[in-house]
Write a structure and sequence with these properties.
With 818 residues, this protein is α+β, with helices and mostly antiparallel strands. The chain has 4 domains: 5-144 and 154-220, Metalloenzyme, LuxS/M16 peptidase-like (Cytochrome Bc1 Complex, Chain A, domain 1, 2-Layer Sandwich); 250-399, Cytochrome Bc1 Complex, Chain A, domain 1, CATH 3.30.830; 454-618, Cytochrome Bc1 Complex, Chain A, domain 1 (2-Layer Sandwich), CATH 3.30.830; 629-817, Cytochrome Bc1 Complex, Chain A, domain 1 (2-Layer Sandwich), CATH 3.30.830.10.
């Protein structure tokens, strides 16, 4: 075996090249239960032939459909899904990524499939025609996606001729399988770019570095070295065609998008953007987020880097604009803040941020570690800030506009118009950098104290970790309109600082109530829960006042989402029988009355205790039986046909749940293969065992551009019926393997403190015993095929089911709910 050639350019110590040119990165995570593999191909949509737009994206799909060593049914996707892992891919401008995360013991089997599918895809002709329909469905869905449309509008504003404005998504028209030149072009693109010299393999797991290296050599050597390719120089991003635009988007959500064109950036650009985002979203006094909220201009912002290559970049700052807000003033505040950062002493903040990243490195999953950006220096951040100026900026307003001129960009039809520059505005802000985080460096020890909520012990490996779940349910009155949104806004500074200190917190409205979840370092939790409860009972009046508007804005944004996402978001409330909202809370007296009447339930896990008085009264321990029956929820919404069907597991015994969990594991890859691969019904779909509120069961969902809701309903019903035959053909050995794999996944979840804590809370909400999951695992060991078939029959009989769709019920057997 030829010697390894050490990399001289990498900043990572375990970074090297194999003799065939494959770059290998190894990250050792001692004690991890999972492992990840990532292969990045240095070739993407901007490298494809002009004659066949979307070819790179198409090839990303095709390699999953069978390879020389593994048929499609035994390929990477079904293999990873069968283990309860994660698998995906993405095509960018100049790179294509394929990645997966599996139990550590199965890393080699996953890597073998990953390498084989990239090196030796079958590219079967029948599969090519079927998958082209899948891309057509994806294109149709993206044509109504606000983020996709915004990026297309920004691409149009760049200097004419840049590849960002070309069509790269691909559809049935551009992927001309009818052309005799198409297949040769596809194979040539694969041969040119899917070669070892243009690939980087990253392996992350608990295996020692030499074991990871052995895996890389054993399978990476199978990749052909290929031939060197000249790296094309991208055309310039400037001069801009336009810098003031307005775009109509589905749902009409009002946003202001400020995008900056970048040149001459280094390899640390992605990390620099991540650090800048932390500065931007922090709620500290004197920061941008806090000022925009206080002025009533914006409710939140996000930073993205959709394009970065050869020193170029397109940085997108997306601001949730308050309805009626002055966009010119909002722009002025952002530019003033960026100007302040360019002269601010950032070295201390930079070191604090690096220390924060080091503190949280072992909180990341192996897949998150594999996907982490290149390391950066303070100079990378300064270089980035130096180009975030007005002359490099495109301002894009979004909303529900009618009659605007239509243009084509990146293959999408846009309702886009250019705006006059107008008079500029100034900011009179006094900006400051963040003060030290109050939740860092807290004492670890905790004196023994009684708790007002039940506390369950955490895993032995989770010393110093704690979780607290609290839920308030209104009594005869519903949840006041906008209350959850106003309180969430008031809590943002606390939960943001807590996140940096190692505690994840979330307040949300679910099934007519309010839920607060805090999970992480116990010493931080003790301070955060006290601060959070104080704010919940006496929030700033401005936050309370904004609640109804924030809720309406969230509903407008949801209306622009894909129909299938809207159905998934609405499912919890539909299972609870609707939201039952009352009038908004406008005064501290109204809020005090809500808290007095609310009933609370709570649970602590691990190193935590709550001795503070909680607002409201303890909830009754009795769990009401859910109403049985088949209910059809017809929801208003534009776009493609979408259907979601949720079959709740009524009165789940451990034996029943074990069978249903295994049914979900078995049916997930089959559902994707049948409805997406064979029938080509749609691109967006979901299947599996889920818990929604107090109920757990099996979920099936699909969105289609070519079938009606009635047809989707028939296909799901037919799929469930067909599964009986597939299940009956399982032999005992295969059944035991599947049950053992599922048991191992549940064991890993139990060993993870956040997963363990969440499961304890879900069991508590469902009225189940504290050791319910352990009993489910025991039931898996003795699960028979006969019991599995019986439970499948119980599923298909469907005495209870909730269907959500953007159409009326196709069957009179279903009881309709609005």
């Amino acid at each position: 075996m030829p010697p390894l050639i050490e990399s001289s350019e990498s900043q990572r110590p375990l970074d090297l090249y194999l003799a065939n040119g494959l770059r290998v990165r190894r990250v050792h995570l001692p004690g991890a239960c999972l492992a990840a593999a990532l292969i990045e191909v240095r070739g993407g949509s901007h490298d494809e032939p002009d004659a066949f737009p979307g070819l790179a994206h198409y090839l990303e799909h095709l390699v999953f459909l069978g390879s020389r060593g593994f048929a499609a049914g035994d390929g990477l996707i079904p293999f990873v899904q069968g283990l309860g892992g994660r698998v995906n891919a993405s095509t960018r401008a100049r790179r294509t990524r394929f990645f997966c995360e599996v139990p550590a013991a199965h890393l080699e089997q996953a890597l073998e499939r990953l390498v084989d599918m990239l090196a030796h895809p079958l590219l079967d002709e029948a599969a090519l025609w079927r998958e082209r329909e899948v891309l057509q469905a994806e294109y149709s869905a993206r044509a109504r996606d606000p983020q996709t449309l915004c990026e297309a509008a920004l691409a149009w504003a760049l200097a004419p001729g840049h590849s960002l404005a070309a069509f790269h998504a691909g559809n049935a028209a551009s992927l001309a399988l009818e052309s005799p030149a198409f297949i040769p072009a596809l194979r040539a693109f694969h041969g040119d770019h899917y070669q070892a010299g243009r690939m980087c393999l990253t392996l992350v797991g608990p295996q020692p570095p030499d074991v990871l290296l052995a895996l890389a050599r054993r399978h990476g050597d199978a990749l052909l070295a290929g031939r060197p390719l000249a790296e094309p120089v991208p055309p310039p991003l400037q001069p801009l065609r336009a810098n003031r635009l307005r775009l109509g988007v589905p749902g009409g959500s009002g946003r202001l998008v400020l995008s900056f064109v970048l040149d001459d950036q280094g390899d640390g650009l992605e990390m620099a953007v991540s650090v800048l985002e932390r500065l931007l979203v922090d709620e500290f006094p004197g920061g941008l987020q806090a000022r925009l909220g206080a002025l009533g201009l914006s409710d939140g912002l996000r930073l993205r880097l959709p394009y970065a290559h050869a020193g170029q970049g397109l940085l997108v700052m997306e601001l949730d604009r308050v309805e009626g807000a002055d966009c010119a003033q909002l722009e002025a505040e952002v530019l003033s803040w960026l100007e302040f950062l360019r002269v601010a002493p950032l070295s201390a903040f930079w070191e604090d941020r690096l220390a924060d990243l080091r503190r949280h490195i072992y909180d990341q999953t192996p897949l998150e570690t594999a996907l982490a950006p290149e390391p950066a220096q303070l100079a990378d951040l300064c270089s980035l800030l130096g180009q975030l100026r007005a002359e490099r900026m495109i301002r894009l307003e979004t909303g529900k506009f009618h009659g605007a001129p239509c243009v084509d960009s990146a293959g999408f039809r846009l309702e886009l118009e250019c705006l006059d520059v107008g008079p500029g505005k100034c900011s009179d802000a006094t900006w400051r950098l963040p003060l030290p985080n109050p939740y860092l460096n807290l004492p670890v020890s905790m004196p023994a104290r009684a708790s007002r909520v039940l506390v369950l012990p955490g895993p032995a490996s989770a010393a110093g970790q704690g979780a607290l779940y609290l839920r308030w349910s209104p009594t005869e009155h519903g949840l006041p309109q906008g209350l959850a949104h106003g309180l969430r806004r008031a809590l943002r500074p606390i939960l943001g600082a807590a996140g940096e200190a190692g505690l994840r917190g979330e307040l949300q409205a679910e099934q007519g109530g309010l839920s607060l979840a805090l999970v992480g370092k116990a010493n931080v939790l003790r301070r955060v829960v006290d601060d959070s409860l104080a704010v919940l009972q006496a929030p700033p009046l401005w936050a309370l006042d904004q609640g109804p508007r924030l809720q309406q804005d969230a509903q407008r944004r949801e209306a622009g989402e894909l129909p299938i996402r809207q159905l998934l978001q609405r499912l919890p409330d539909r299972l609870a029988g609707g939201t039952n909202e009352t009038a908004a809370v406008f005064s501290p007296e109204d809020l005090s009355g809500f808290w007095r009447r609310a009933r609370w339930q709570g649970l602590g896990i691990g190193d935590v205790a709550l001795d503070r008085q909680l607002p409201g009264l303890p909830a009754r321990a009795r769990i009401q039986a859910e109403e049985g029956g088949r209910f059809w929820h017809a929801l208003e919404g534009e776009g493609e046909a979408a259907l979601l069907m949720f079959y709740p597991l009524e009165l789940p015994t451990p034996e029943d749940e074990a069978a249903w969990r295994l049914l979900g594991r078995l049916m997930e890859p089959a559902f994707h293969q049948r409805l997406r691969g064979e029938l080509q019904l749609g691109y967006a779909l979901a299947c599996g065992f889920r818990q929604v509120g107090r109920q757990r069961g099996l979920l099936f969902a699909i969105q289609s551009p070519r079938a009606s809701v009635a047809e989707l309903f028939e296909h799901i019903e037919a799929f469930l019926a067909q599964q009986h035959l597939s299940l009956a053909q399982l032999d005992s050995k295969r059944l035991q393997e599947l049950a053992r794999s599922l048991d191992q996944q549940l064991a890993r979840q139990a060993a993870s403190f956040p997963e363990h804590a969440r499961q304890c809370w879900l069991d508590r909400l469902s009225g189940l015993a504290d050791d319910h999951l352990e009993r489910v695992r025991q039931a898996l060991t003795g699960l028979s095929l006969q019991r599995l078939l019986e439970q499948h029959g119980r599923l298909t009989a469907a005495r209870a089911c909730h269907a959500l769709a953007n159409a009326e019920s196709p069957s009179p057997e279903w009881r309709t709910r609005p």
